[in-house]
Predict the 3D structure of the following.
Amino acid sequence: MNLGTMFKKNNYITVGGKRESRPEVPDGLLKQCNKCKAAIYTSEVISNHYICPKCKGYFRLPVNKRIEMITEPGSFDSWDEGMEVCNPLGFKGYEEKVRELQEKTGLEEAVITGSAFIGNNKVALAVCDGRFMMASMGHVVGEKITRVFERATSEGLPVIVFACSGGARMQEGMISLMQMAKTAAAVKKHGDAGNLYITVLTDPTTGGVTASYAMLGDIILAEPGALIGFAGPRVIEQTIGQKLPEGFQRAEFQVEHGFADAIVTRDNMKNTLLDILRLHKVKRIREGMPDAFVPTSFEQKADAWERVILSRKKDRPTGMDYIRELFPDFMELHGDRYFGDDPAIVGGIAEFLGVPVTVIVQCKGRNTKENIKRNFGMPSPEGYRKVLRLMKQAEKFKRPVICLVDTPGAFCGMEAEERGQGEAIARNLLEMSALKTPILSVVIGEGGSGGALAMAVADQVWMLENAIYSILSPEGFASILWKDSKRAKEAAEVMKITSHDLKKLQIVDGIIQEPKEYTRENMGLVIEQLEELLGKFLSECGKKDMDELLQERYERFRKF
Amino acid sequence: MVQKILIANRGEIAVRIIRACREMGIRTVAVYSEADKDALHTQLADEAICIGAAPSKDSYLNMENIISATIVSGADAIHPGFGFLSENYRFAQLCEECNIIFIGPSSRVMKSMGNKTEARNTMEQAGVRVIPGWNNPIETADECKEIAAKLTYPVIIKAALGGGGKGMRTAFCEEELENAFLSARKEALAAFGDATVYMEHFFEHPRHVEFQILADGEGNVVHLGERDCSIQRNHQKFIEEAPCEAISDSLREAMGAEAVKAAKAVGYVNAGTIEFLLENDRDFYFMEMNTRIQVEHPVTEWITGVDLIKEQIRIASGRKLSFTQEAISFTGHSIECRINAENPGLNFRPSPGRITGLYLPGGKGIRVDTAVYSGYEVPPFYDNMLAKLIVHAKNRKEAIRKMKSALGETIIQGIDTNVDYLYDILSEMEAKVLVE
């Protein structure tokens, strides 16, 4: 029923004058989101960290807003101002364009550098502003970046770079290309001196900047949805003659492909930087800890096969459960920087008793869905390469490494072979044997062969009482030796894979007692022992000379 | 006087406002979502503009589109009704910046009254009695325990940005406190995006009494008596009456004066409501201020004879109040029932759908404010109130009987409603007054 046409409408007579001023939208009050196209209230965008309140898309940030958002008020001290833009190619109109942009934006060039405080941490800072020729890198940008690293190296400061760039600056030709080499070399010197470098990739970071200083951070963070890549999407589409899929080259894609540690939203950026800075301070455990953890003797009655079953039980705590209980401030870092991020291994940094540590954990899933995501705890080569990358950082920043081992074995699949599973494991054994920082490994569930050993070339190796550590699964062992996988139970007995057997063989240094029916619900007893073990390990190793520690680690495996 | 008003709302309140405008000779612009193409407000207004898809966030909460519709239609004022953007100070601010008259108080006042702890502070400073409580945000459970001990149990923990009963938890003893604190914070964060909570002493059997005020731009403030909204389900009112039977003339005078004081303290302009808790029918405490027209405004209209919507429009046009406090008198008793599309047998589950048959009551002292008609399809996207049934009679007993009789002849077919449930409650109320 259409009532509208039947209702009688008023005949209006306007008596008296209208209001003098009519409603109108003042200029700049509303703007259109360039992502979702909706009209949005400008002040709401500004108060919301320059994020579209409707689609949550990120707007590019003016450099001063960026500095304001992450540093302490008034602490920013600008470096290397007043550098003249040069025109090495004599490119027509280049100087005019630069001058025009300088007037329009109030910026001298596309990057601002300086020092500032984040919390009570003094840092060197370089922030790019895309409004200036898409923050492309010419001589001045390259020079300012280089000088930041040089000065930070001499002052021993961490560097934080907010990258945003279209790439090299075409107008400066080969001089621009050389900036890539120059900046990379400065990053190298800064890193070799043991300093921390954090990059934050913002929309867009492409071309020669991606292929130089932007991708070289110890920690690489990215803003949600940021376009990050070497070749621009248009160039790729033209080259391959295909449309690129949704999300290609976005920040999320980079994390998935192992090139960024984490995606951080703007409201979390300052706190994340604070956490990273805190976790990169070198600290020793306080004095007064007794040296070694000696658990009281115990032995649960169970045969080898029963322990195999227990080690694989569905409700047994997984790696993530230990992270939650032992390292509440754990910050996960992703990716191997080559190919991908392996969810079967979770690695990151955390504080334990006030000491920053690197934590690397093999993770099975807590349910089928999570198991599929984590490949049932079977790591791929990119997982082991992530382990190595994080261990190398631990070495650089003098953080002890804590490994928790729980895997049926390294993943046996075509892709794993294609990417060099054997090489990845071998590389870890080699590097771990001489890694200049203490390593503690604890087998918490299954210690499946080489896949486990690639995280267990450690100064000390411990096991939970009902964990197993073996050359092969009992099923596999029975099938190879006796051509009958059904004899797994028998195999388990002869293989000597239980904690008590391996303690006798000196494969492991000690055993952690488990409660009967150990599940996620009753982790207390195990966690208490692990806390004590970790505390004492850190204290004990902290006192040792590095050469002595490495020699002992060498002997530990040399003896077999 | 404003010439053309855009009504940024839907349902019966939009229709109510359009009717007032029609009577005043003011042009009306309705805005509607894609789901409300056939809604009554869309059809009754002089013009109607579609402002987005069915979900509220895309249409009735879409500030930018509503502003655009206002500019395009040439309206000079927006009436926000209740719910949706009516208490969103940013929207009021946006109107101010665009030189659009927002029919309500200023964005500044809305902001200060919208934050409950800030409102408490303001009122306390103005010498208005507030519920004993702790005005500052509470951060930790330990802090919570300390404060609770001072306030005496039971206590109630409330979300600073709260409303609609969300983010509220009571604790009768210290053992219950930590849980209450944590779950209130969690719910507050989920519902309002902000976990800030504060605490008040909890009155177990209070009356919820609110005073209607009107204030013009020249500092004149009057109150229009009280409404008793004690009958609630899940902190949602559904039967309201005026006057409140527990309030004597002298108490009304004292509470009214306090309400006027509160409104003056914040520099309030337009229609507003001061909510009080009344304990033991004697002690009253400021609870919060609603900076909009209320759902239950018709009961006040009936006992005072004042058309509140028209007064809102006059005040927004810059007119002075045309009457003083002395001129306001109260006649008879009025009750309102909210008729909702819901099934009381299924935990009041909403029941959208097509109304296949409709018979609404009428006669002396009966008013129905609704936007439904026979054949109307109740959309599932919005509040499920279908109609307000309001009665007026000489005294409370007669009003109850009139309401019961009116509910008894209300027929809404095709969807589930709470009419029978209301009828049962009115029967109980009737039995009670007969005993007295």
